Amino acid sequence: xxxxxxxxxxxxxxxxxxxxxxxxxxEDMVLGRLFEDKCAEMYYRGKMFGFxxxxxxxxxxxxxxxxAMRPGEDYVCSTYRDHVHALSAGVPAREVMAELFGxxxxxxxxRGGSMHLFSSRHRLLGGYAFVAEGIPVxxxxxxxxxxxxxxxxxxxxxxxxACFFGDGACNNGxxxxxLNMAALWKLxxxxxxxxxxxxxxxxxxxxxxxxxxxxxxxxFGMPGYEVDGMDVLAVHYKAKEAIARARAGEGPTxxxxxxxxxxxxxxxxxxxxxxxxxxxxxxxxxxIERFGKYLKEQNLATEEELKEIQHKIQxxxxxxxxxxxxxxxxxxxxxxKYVFADE
Length: 343
Description:
Blueprint (H helix, E strand, L loop, with lengths): L18 H26 L14 H8 L8 E3 L5 H6 L4 H8 L33 H17 L10 E6 L6 H13 L3 E7 L2 E2 L2 E2 H4 L16 E5 L3 H16 L5 E6 L17 H8 L3 H11 L5 H24 L17
Parallel strand pairs: 1-2, 2-3, 3-7, 6-7
Antiparallel strand pairs: 4-5
């Protein structure tokens, strides 16, 4: 008999946020949700091709972690479910949508598509199609930050890396090897597990001998925390703690965010494996509706202000689609361009 995990309780009253910070988090989550909804529409209209994995339901994790970081300075490493991580990191919606359309104006010049978004300008290290593939990359980037600071004497090298991956990645060798190295070398990195309970069609509890992933951090002598991934304040608060530790040279942290994807594994997934009861339970914990209610209760926003944000973001998303549709296709003569770094 598999024991069902309960969501950790977070006292929102223990954290004080300003109206500006609250609206910034809310707007970022709304951007992620409306962008992904538009992606679904465009995919079914034949504007996008290949596999497209949407992030609906998990917005509190991306916004909570990335909006606690320094934009354009700290590093973000994603997975194949990378659209919203890119948006939170500051990659313009136009560039993300154009990439999904395979256009030259995309953030990866139309070469990457949905699973391989990249932007050096925004310190987005990439989306990775293979499970756990980004963990060694993120660990290496965290190592170079430490090396530049301690060996090369660069006092400005205090960047932190956030590495996102799912529960399925925690059964892969890269997870264990990289956590071990990060702990040994006290690397400035946060390992963020987006535990949405399902690795494609495999229930998390059936695939691992220790379902509570955060407990695995103790083996490596690093802090590990379980967080309600449907509560942006809970994620944001713990992310800030972990970032401060990393920037102070105290090493890595493992954050397990309990969350849920509201759509199938990809847009090609009929989503027939998950029970109706399970879905309904998580739908009632929608992170955007939940945070909007909190903002109103705390007198940090009115219903009209929240609606204004939604209308504003819808216009941004619609503009991104128009930009993508009007953008040029990559030139076939440039087939080998961007394969190697320019000198």
